[in-house]
Every structure is written in C-alpha cells, then in structure tokens.
Amino acid sequence: MTVYVIDDHPLMRDALTMLVHRVKPGLKIIPIHKLNVVESTVEKNGPPELFCLDLQLPDTLGMSGVQVLKAKFPNVPLAVVTSASASEYESRCLEAGANAFIEKSNNPTQIIAALRTLLITEEEEAQEDAAPAGPTKLSKRQKQLILMLDQGLSNREIAEKLDISEHTVKVHFWRLFRRLGVNSRTQALHFARTNGWLGI
Fold this sequence. Notes:
This protein is of the alpha/beta class.
C-alpha cells in the first residue's frame, strides 16, 4: 500500500516522508506537488492507504483540496497537514471529510502519533496490545477512550491525561467509531455498555 504526500514545498514533503517512515518503515511513499496530478499518480503507483494533504497548494483554494480528494477517494483516510490555523480550518476540514487535522507547528512526536492512528491496522494495534482483534475486543487505547468517555471527559482533558494532542484524540475517536460502527460518543458508550465493556 502507498501513502501520498501532497505538498508543494519540497522540504515539507521530505520531512513528512521521514515521519511516515517512522510510523511504518515498509510503506511506499509518493510525493506530489499539486492536486491535479493525484489521479494519474495513483493509477501509476497503486491504491492509496493514506493521503497527507497541505491546504495551501498552487491549484487549490480553501477547502477545495479536501473536497476533491474525498469525492474521488471517499474511503481513503485523509490527514490535513498544514501551516493553516486550527482555529480557522480544523472544524471545516473535518466537516468536509478529513480524518485528522495536523498543524505543521506540532512537534514530530505529535505528528507521528496522529499519523500512526490512521496507518496502523486494527490487527497490528491488537497485536501490540497482546489482545485479540475480534469484534467484541478493544485495543488498550480504545478501552481507555471508552472509560474516559464514561467519565465525561472532553477531548482536551483526554489529551492531557494521555499526553497526546487533541488532534490525535479526534483521530482515535474516528477509529473507535469506525470499529464499533457508530457515529457519536453517546452511541459508543451505549455500545460499550450493551457489550459489558463498562461492567453495566
């Protein structure tokens, strides 16, 4: 599988490539400098496992890059990695279909953690936790999220407790909701209680 890093700045493409390799060393990573060559590049290099997209490309405006990629590749995880302000763009990116919003000003450890949640498979996560990956099993991190949801903690409070960024918390929730087949915190808690994960 292949990760496509879409950024018009050569140094940033190189930096992101190195960070992605630290997440999963065996991945094929293809740098792209503008959006309008994505489809032809994917045809040449194989199906994407992840897109890393900068918002500010020569051939995009505002949210257009996110919208185009999600329209053409709706099932491929999309991480927006940008120098744009989270306060201005994060909610808009997530509403448009992005799975993570990562500011380039974050430290490398935070960026790696956010990318890792999108790249690591459920089976790999379960193996790391030494737990089965069956439908009634959660990874160690997912169990932590459920317990913290039950405590009514906000994303910011969860981020502080786990020593990760809020962006990474949101990506973890995206993975958890996808794993459980739910769309909200309330549904996730109900699912957890129904399956006895909270002892209720």
